[in-house]
Amino acid sequence: MGERLLMKGNEVIAEAAIRAGCRHYFGYPITPQTEIAHYMAKKMPKVGGVFLQAESEVAAINMVYGAASAGKRVMTSSSSPGISLKQEGISYASGSQLPAVVVNIMRGGPGLGGIQPSQSDYFQATKGGGHGDYHMIVLAPSSVQELYELTVDAFNLADQYRMVAMILGDGVLGQMMEVVNFRDEEPIVETDKSWCACGHGMKREHNTITSIHLDPAVLEQWNINLQNKYKTICEKEQRYEIYKCDDAEIIIVAYGSVARIAKNVVQVAREEGIKVGLLRPITLWPFPVKAFEQVMDRAKAFLTVEMSSGQMLEDVMLAVNGRKPVYFTGRMGGMIPRVDDVMAKIKEIMAG
Amino acid sequence: MFLHEVIIAGFGGQGILSAGRLIAYAGMLDGREVSFFPSYGPEMRGGTANCMVVVSDEPIASPVLNSCTALIVMNNPSLEKFESYLKKDGVLITDSSLVQQKPVRNDIRHFELPATLMASDAGNKAFSNIYLVGKLIKETGIITPESFEKALYGVLSKSKHYLIPQEMEALRAGMEY
After folding, report:
1. Chain A closest CA to B64's CA: distance in Å?
2. Phi, psi (5° rounding) for residue A51?
3. Which residue in B120, B119, B123, B124 sits closest to B173, CA to CA?
4. Does the domain spanning A4-236 belong to CATH 3.40.50.970?
5. Using CB atoms, which residue from B35, B41, B42 is nearest to A176?
6. Chain A, nearest residue to B151 by Cα
7. ipTM for the complex?
8. Which residues pair with A52 in a beta bridge?
9. All structural domains of chain B
10. What's the DSSP call for residue A197?
């Protein structure tokens, strides 16, 4: 273990990216994630990297496309309205099979919305906010330590599968400070990047990176290849935490900062003699359906808690597939669910 | 179980967030689990500011508090907003130079300290938050004065280190008030 440091979530994301070998960051400021850009502006010049504040979010994501095409580890970050602007670029990068990391520190929407924490971009992140049959790997950290570890993992996964990986956090995670333990050395996965367009010195055929395939038969095959890759990821990369579910009758399903509140609920419920557990998806795509099989037999009901109108709820219902009842409670617009509110919902479920 | 859940609230510019960050830092130096969650955005720029700090022996579930064991208040609106968060027998510390209102509850422990006045009498108004932290340390034992001093050295830039003896004096004055 290295030094224990008290750091802000946003700063930890930036530090983790640099530790993971990211030397190219393109961004545009927006609350509540601007500290990522601040940190990058300060640190990138010191490690021989590039920090560039683009003229817009659209410009930033297309700079990401360029750096990723050259085979470099690259990141951009924003918050909800800014991530909407990046969707075209994310679709193009996904179509071109480019590895990149995109961070979304969510705030309340729709539209310009507000600046307080939210989880209402779940659909956008997991179902494809841009056009076409594509997916991103979506990682949902729940602590500052996990912001660090999953950001490093995001770069590895992006390279391994040649695709975009997203860190999906919210204003609580970005703004809070916790203790983080940095490793002495990061587990960086080296991958073959012979596909990249970084100059061939007239010694080989040039590489082409593109998402355009006008022949439908060629484009269909390209899509089949993408889908095969996604299938492999669904089999191999599901991640989740199962917390106090061994004897649980009601299982809360929650991710990110809401999962932290849910842990308080588990504690309070157990003090009152109600057996509640928590299933916390760490990958939102691929959604951890395997986790549900582990807890299905004993569970009497599932309760999804989100800072949204109920978006992950749909994936929970698909995973449960009618075998047990699925309930929902949540808050919107930047309001954070209270322990009392969730407890009230649990008692309502218990009363039938 | 060692568990302190603290809310500090007042106006932007009173050192609300830095007081919270220092407590969290000191808690970390004591080897505890800590979390710090600030209000953010336009609130910081002249409006109300608050932060939530947890110092615990156990891993911290949520950094977002719905209730607290101690509350430091530096303006009237914050007392109205957060008094109900205090658990029974919780510690309420108000800066009586700024907070004229009285708490409505009688199941809490209330301490008044004219921190802003004490700070300006001592010559540095910016340390009013430190007097209140001193009182918090005295009444709850959340951190030690020694770890607070180390936290000051850890958090402040070197150019501000010459102020630390004055800040420690403010902390002790708060503890002894």
Report:
1. 7
2. -110, 130
3. B119
4. yes
5. B35
6. A6
7. 0.95
8. A26
9. 3-176 (3.40.920.10)
10. -
